[in-house]
Design a protein that fits this description.
Layout: H1 2-9, E1 21-23, E2 53-60, E3 73-81, E4 94-98, H2 104-108, H3 112-121, E5 124-128, H4 142-145, H5 149-152, H6 157-174, E6 182-187, H7 189-200, E7 207-211, H8 226-238, H9 240-257, H10 262-269, H11 279-295, H12 303-312, H13 320-331, E8 344-346, H14 350-357, H15 378-389, H16 397-402, H17 407-414, E9 418-423, E10 441-446, H18 464-491
Parallel strand pairs: 4-5, 4-6, 6-7, 7-9, 9-10
Antiparallel strand pairs: 1-8, 2-3, 3-5
Helix pairs in contact: 8-9, 8-11, 9-10, 9-11, 9-12, 9-13, 12-13
Pfam families: Peptidase_S28
GO molecular function: dipeptidyl-peptidase activity; serine-type exopeptidase activity
Signal peptide: 1-23
Length: 492
């Protein structure tokens, strides 16, 4: 199961991708996924409980031009759960998950914030799949949709938001629910979309909960090394000796790799399924393992602590790489050997298309982190994207379209009803909104939280600080809806 999840998360991984894959010259980091793996026993297969009804909407391909081909349509998948809805006559709210880079059936089973609070709000639940993900594929197939820049050119966050606006308008009209308030909920990239949805379409959505949404990791607003600085802090807080061991390991790997038969020695020591081609291949694999653990450092397992316990648990006098292998063994799928993470871009990766066009987050590492220095290089990044997708990134577009610079003073002038929630152990939190903008655009952070933890399924073992964070969010949403209902009464 872990291996399957990793395959879903990473492109070109384990050398099993058969489409074009180009070795990347820039550092790659985990995508903005809602989850790395389920926090409970829910299957990652497409099984859905009976309350979750799968539907398809005939969606417009291009919302912004009027060429003949713009009127082409595709089938967009969405899920509706009517179980708790109070009905249109009661003006009960509609909770909409703004689909992100994943299969909506899996997402709907992980976002416990919606299902667990639907009875409290008598809410209708709607989950909309993002175009070009899951089964919401234009042009009839993945092969056709990813054929070239002409077919991929309709793949953007602005088109996705327009999809959500059109579909929600259709649903409300079809259900005679025009007076029902809509609350957008999203995590990670979906959280970015939820906040942008509220800003761009305030007449359609009256509030947004944006969990772990790094809307400020663009255009130089956030320091390049911020992501890796948070990862480093996470490990250092867990164990100083663990942090030191990881920091020392990169040069140790390079030193052994430089020896005669050094790569063979490393391949055997780390039980790699096939000989290493370079020391970088092993370092990429270990780096990805360590940063994923920090990004998804969720209770009750706390993978950062798990790796550090493995590193520190060896007898005194154990060498650095033996300690690193102990962590590697603790975090890898069981088996006779271990696969490595292959850095590269795939021309059939939906997320990499987005990263190569508009979602250009300039993330790199410097010598202040526990990783080897590798600054973000826009020139190399652009070359990789042009080689694989034949498209040139637009690193300034997100801040042009949605804003970001001087966000506090800008949003204070016109924005309302947005919650930006973050866990400060999440490396992406460094690119989030961490301070209140106004009385109604608020930031809720927890020192021990990880990526999107507040909107995931609640567990009996959840710590008090996580419960309090969720309760704060619920209280704010209740206030929005009460204010909306008061306004409705006064207008009648």
């Amino acid at each position: 199961m872990v291996r399957k999840l990793l395959i879903q998360l990473f492109s070109c991984i384990f050398a099993i991708i058969v489409t074009r894959c180009l070795a990347s010259t820039h550092r790659q980091i985990p995508s903005l996924g809602l989850v790395m793996s389920s926090r409970d026993s829910i299957s990652t297969e497409t099984y859905l409980p009976p309350d979750f009804e799968v539907n398809y909407y005939t969606q417009t391909l291009d919302h912004f031009t009027y060429r003949h081909e713009s009127y082409t349509t595709f089938q967009q998948r969405y899920i509706v759960n009517f179980r708790y809805w109070g009905g249109a006559n009661t003006s009960s709210p509609i909770f909409v998950y703004t689909g992100d880079e994943g299969d909506i059936t899996r997402i709907s089973q992980n976002v416990g914030f919606m299902t667990e609070n639907a009875p409290r709000f008598n809410a209708l639940l709607v989950y909309i799949e993002h175009r070009y993900y899951g089964k919401s594929i234009p042009f009839g197939s993945t092969e056709a949709a990813f054929a070239n820049t002409s077919t991929l050119g309709y793949f953007s966050s602005t088109q996705a938001l327009a999809d959500y606006a059109e579909l929600i308008t259709y649903l409300k009209r079809n259900l005679s629910a025009e007076s029902c308030p809509v609350i957008a909920i999203g995590g990670s990239y979906g959280g970015m979309l939820a906040s942008w949805f509220r800003l761009k379409y305030p007449h359609i959505v009256m509030g947004a909960l944006a969990s772990s949404a790094p809307i400020l990791y663009f255009d130089g607003i956030t320091p390049q090394n911020g992501y890796f600085a948070v990862v480093t802090k996470d490990y250092r807080e867990a164990s100083e000796s663990c942090y030191t061991t990881i920091r020392q390991s990169w040069s140790e790997i390079d030193k052994i790799a430089a020896l005669p038969n050094g790569l063979i020695t490393l391949s055997k020591k780390f039980q790699i399924c096939g000989p290493l081609k370079s020391s970088q291949e092993l370092k990429n694999t270990l780096e990805m393992m360590f940063v994923l653990a920090a990004q998804y450092n969720n209770p009750p397992t706390y993978p950062v602590n798990k790796y550090c316990d493995a590193i520190d648990g060896l007898p005194k006098g154990s060498d650095v790489l033996s300690r690193i292998y102990a962590a590697f063994g603790a975090g890898s799928p069981s088996g006779s050997c271990h696969f490595t993470y292959k850095v590269g871009l795939s021309n059939t990766s939906a997320w990499e298309w987005q990263a190569c066009t508009e979602l250009v987050s300039p993330i790199g590492a410097d010598n202040t982190t526990m990783f080897q220095a590798s600054p973000f290089d826009l020139k190399n990044y652009t070359k990789d994207c042009e080689d694989v997708f034949h498209v040139t990134p637009r690193p300034h577009w997100i801040t042009t379209e949605f804003g970001g610079h001087s966000i506090k003073s800008v949003l204070k002038k016109f924005a309302s009803n947005i919650i930006f929630s973050n866990g400060l152990r999440d490396p992406y939190s460094i690119g989030g909104v961490l301070q209140n903008v106004s009385d109604s655009v608020v930031a809720i952070s927890t020192a021990q939280g990880a990526h999107c933890l507040d909107i995931l399924n609640a567990l009996p073992s959840d710590p008090e600080w996580l419960i309090m964070q969720r309760n704060s969010e619920i209280k704010i949403v209740q206030g929005w809806i009460a204010e909306y209902n008061t306004m409705l009464v006064n207008e009648r």
